[in-house]
Amino acid sequence: MSRPADRVATYDSHVTRSTTPQLRDLGLLRRVRDRIDREYAEPLDVEALARGVNMSAGHLSREFRRAYGESPYSYLMTRRIERAMALLRRGDLSVTEVCFTVGCSSLGTFSTRFTELVGVPPSVYRRDHASATEGMPSCVAKQVTRPIRNREAQSVRRT
Fold first, then answer.
1. How many other CB atoms are there within 10 angstroms of residue 144's CB atom?
2. What kind and span of H or E run contains 55?
3. How far is CA 35 from the centre of its chain?
4. Shortest CA distance to 153 belongs to which of 98, 104, 126, 113?
5. In sequence order, which ranges of the chain are alpha helices (DSSP H)?
6. From the CB of residue 114, how many other CB atoms can be counted at a distance below 10 Å?
7. Distance from first CA to last CA of the chain, Å, rounded?
8. Which position has the higher pLDDT, 23 or 127?
């Protein structure tokens, strides 16, 4: 009769032997995504993310895009913009302070990406959306204000 520890060891070796490279990569990609979610304000780049999971930067970028529909850099910027939106709604920091707080090192790049995802520049968002989520539970506010990925935001047309 086998002991529980023997069954676990057998199961683990079976999973390891039968796991496909794509399934292993998916686990690694999830680790990269989780790291981005956790460390969005840190200076992250694709090379550093790839080193963290022993992949080349090119392979990580291709597989991440295939799994999640966007590049690791785009996902990182979306997380940063999402956090920036919350800080701008709070209203106690300037756009420049928010830019650096969320981990961006260039105000120009931050403003451009913010406008692409949100549809308005950060200064306009700060002015017009300060009380947009007032009284909402934070989990609802996060869902309602989530930035649109892949440059899908439509600019407001004046008629």
1. 10
2. none
3. 9
4. 113
5. 4-18, 21-39, 46-52, 57-68, 72-90, 95-101, 107-118, 122-128, 138-144
6. 29
7. 79
8. 127
Q: What is the pLDDT of residue 23?
A: 73
CA 31 to chain CA centroid, Å, is: 12
CA pair distance 36, 52, nearest whole angstrom: 12
Q: How many angstroms separate the CA atoms of 10 and 159, rounded? A: 68
Q: What angle do CA 69, 32, 47 make, to 5 degrees?
A: 95
Angle of the 72-90 helix axis to the 57-68 helix axis, nearest 10? 70
CA atoms within 13 A on the CB side of 98: 26
Q: Render pLDDT for 110-142 as a digit per residue (tens, 0 to 9).
A: 999 999 999 999 999 998 877 666 666 766 666
